[in-house]
Write a structure and sequence with these properties.
Length: 234
């Protein structure tokens, strides 16, 4: 019963402060919309794949320890791809206005569990530039890995391609606006609660009943003066 009363009071509180709370929701969602549509640059992603070939032939070489060592080698490749040894050449060949650290932040290297396929993903605000950089990283890595590790077992499985209608992966405008609206709602409730806590004024007879827990016996109405009564009759 107490929970039902608390919920009832909370709903009354929300109704009383509805416009205040909604103003915070609308302002927060509006700010997020402005940032998402007009300020934040769209970010596009391009992906290329490289395949680590099996060097040794024969079933006898396909032992568990051999496969484990080869997968560890793939982890080494993941590090080398984002190393200055590769990225410096990519920057020089493409004449990019970036440092190796800046370019590294735009690159994501992934591979499926127990897979010899390495995915190279590159993010950029220019979709065509993202495709060019992804392909160039794969090409430079394939060319440089023999001299770096004295092995030649890298093939480019698929190149990045520019689609006819590239879609940005960031920002997620709808998600940003939704999160901002929720935060605005929470902030609105918080501000409304603070106002409610410090507001000690009694606005109606219902407030008297709730605060004093006493029934209202009578109400004093406004008494008009004789002059006002005469004016009303005229």
């Amino acid at each position: 019963m107490a929970n039902a009363l608390d919920l009832k009071h909370f709903m009354k509180f929300l109704l009383r402060r509805f416009y205040l709370i909604m103003s915070f929701v609308l302002v927060a969602a509006g700010i997020a919309a402005v940032f998402s549509f007009f300020i934040l640059k769209p970010v596009y992603e391009a992906q290329t794949q490289i395949l680590v070939n099996q060097n040794n032939k024969g079933i006898e070489n396909m032992s568990w320890s051999y496969l484990e060592s080869e997968l560890q080698l793939i982890n080494t490749y993941n590090v080398i791809i984002k190393s200055p040894a590769i990225l410096t050449k990519v920057i020089d060949e493409l004449k990019l206005p970036l440092t190796t650290e800046e370019l590294s932040k735009q690159i994501t290297i992934t591979n499926e569990n127990k897979s010899k396929v390495i995915n190279i993903k590159v993010e950029d605000d220019n979709p065509e530039q993202a495709v060019i950089m992804a392909n160039k990283i794969a090409e430079v890595f394939q060319k440089e890995i023999p001299s770096l590790m004295s092995i030649n077992n890298i093939n480019i499985l698929s190149k990045a391609k520019l689609s006819d209608d590239p879609k940005p992966i960031k920002p997620n405008k709808l998600l940003n606006i939704s999160i901002a609206a929720v935060l605005g709602f929470m902030m609105g409730i918080g501000i409304a609660l603070l106002i409610e806590m410090f507001d000690s004024t009694i606005k109606s007879e219902k407030d008297v009943e709730e605060i004093l827990d006493l029934p209202i016996i009578g109400i004093i109405s406004t008494i008009e003066s004789p002059k006002e009564v005469g004016d009303n009759k005229r």
